[in-house]
Amino acid sequence: MEKGRVLLALTGIHPGRWRELLSGEREVVLEPDGASDPSITYAVVWKQRPNLLSSLPNLRAVFSIGAGVDHIFADPTLPDVPIVKVVADNLTQYMTEYVVWRVLDHHRQGLLYRSQQQKKIWHEPPQRPAGDISVGIMGLGTLGRAAASVLLSLGFAVNGWSRSDKPMKGVSTYAGEAGLIPFLNATDILVVLLPLTPQTQGIINYGVLKELRKRNGLGGSVLINAGRGRLQKDADILRALEDGTLKEASLDVFEVEPLPKTSRLWSHPKVFVTPHAAATSDPVHLVPIMLRQMAALERGEKLENVVDRKAGY
Ligand code: NDP
Ligand code: OXD
User: Fold this and answer.
1) Active site residue 276
2) Which of 77, 139, 201, 274 is deepest in the core (most CB within 10 A)?
3) Burial track 101-116 (b if 16+ CB lie within 10 A, e otherwise)
4) What domains are defined for the chain?
5) Which of 228, 230, 239, 264 is catalytic?
């Protein structure tokens, strides 16, 4: 099979390094060029322009530069070709670091100590062992499982919730709609690592937050969302923080990104904000995986990490 050309279509991300690295092995066409070009067989995308992919008559595969693919499904005329998501050790490691960082900061009362330091207060509040705290991971996929295994090694009790039953040694697992409430009722710190699909949109709402476990050594339940912003209702999180349903939150993703300057989440004393930066897509690590997959396809081999179109992730 002939070596196909690659269309690079990134919105909001500088294409320079991606282009340079892809060009090591392939001819690269940078959007807005390339529409309808019959010589293009692959597209590497982030939030591509709607109807762009369907204009490419010989497209064989679409590569997301992220683990999430909701940005690709937003296109109403998505052609019927395989969509490949990112599965890469380096991205998984970044996400594990973020989750462990945020869990430990909430567990070890970082917010309280930062505020005590500002006021020059010398006071040691009671400490609880990690084993007293249940971290519940919503989305026990590639990223959720990796984070779960490090949290387990730190001594936390870990719960996991997924669409289908996904047993994992040491983790109490729950699945599907029937498992959601029992999972929440057993969880002190909720970590959201779900993909955004029609089924998961808005799932982090007030009713769900209300179900989190109240009996714990943290003085309240905690939300950490590094999945997608539209999984959550920002207003419900604010309401839950204000009435004590939630003690604190770490949010990496938001309903609207960048988070509008007018959002109260920016200045809320119980919220830790990062700008969708939990696990960055590094072209140095990801481009070689994409190039390897393109070559494999041309040798007649199967693509790996192809998205299940029906499930949407
Ligand atoms: P995976 O596809 O490996 O895992 C997704 C998990 O979510 C699976 O366990 C799946 O269940 C579960 N799930 C999906 N739909 C439902 C549902 N309706 N009900 C219950 N569980 C469900 O994804 P990754 O771990 O690779 O990535 C997860 C998400 O993290 C990405 O989609 C992306 O949105 C986000 N992300 C965010 C980043 C950031 O910087 N903030 C960086 C990278 C990713 P099952 O196991 O049964 O299939
Ligand atoms: C991703 C992301 O999906 O960075 O990889 O959000």
Assistant:
1) yes
2) 139
3) bbbebbbebbbeeeee
4) 5-86+281-298 (3.40.50.720), 89-273 (3.40.50.720)
5) 228
Cβ–ligand 2 contact at 281 (below 6 Å): yes
Q: Band the pLDDT of 217: cuts 50, 70, 90.
A: low
For the sheet with 40-46, list strands across it.
Answer: 28-30, 5-10, 40-46, 61-64, 83-84
Q: Backbone phi, then psi, for 221, in 5-degree steps?
A: -85, 165
Q: Look at the block and give the residue holding tokens 């007293």.
A: 132
Residue 232: beta bridge partners?
Answer: 204
Residue with CA nearest ligand 1 atom 42: 279
Determine the pLDDT at residue 216: 59
pLDDT one-digit tens code per residue, 73-86: 999 999 999 999 99
Active-site residue identified among 17, 276, 292, 299: 276
Q: Which backbone phi and psi does 15 adopt, to 5 degrees?
A: -80, -10
Closest by CA position to 310, among listed 145, 83, 86: 83
Residue 219 has pLDDT above 90, yes or no: no
For ligand 2, the distance from its centroid to the CA atom of residue 67, given in whole angstroms, is: 5
Looking at the CA of residue 71, tell me the nearest atom of ligand 2: 3
Task: Please tell me the distance from the alpha carbon of residue 307 to that of residue 85, in angstroms, as a whole number.
Answer: 7
Cα separation, 204 vs 212, whole angstroms: 11
Ligand with minimal distance to 285 CA: 2
Q: Is 252 in the pocket of ligand 1 (CB under 6 A)?
A: yes
pLDDT in tens, 302-312: 999 999 999 99
Annotated catalytic residue 106: no
For residue 171, which phi and psi values (nearest 5 degrees)?
-110, 135
Average confidence score pLDDT of the chain: 97
Residue 173 is predicted with a pLDDT of 98
Cβ contact 255:232 at 8 Å: yes
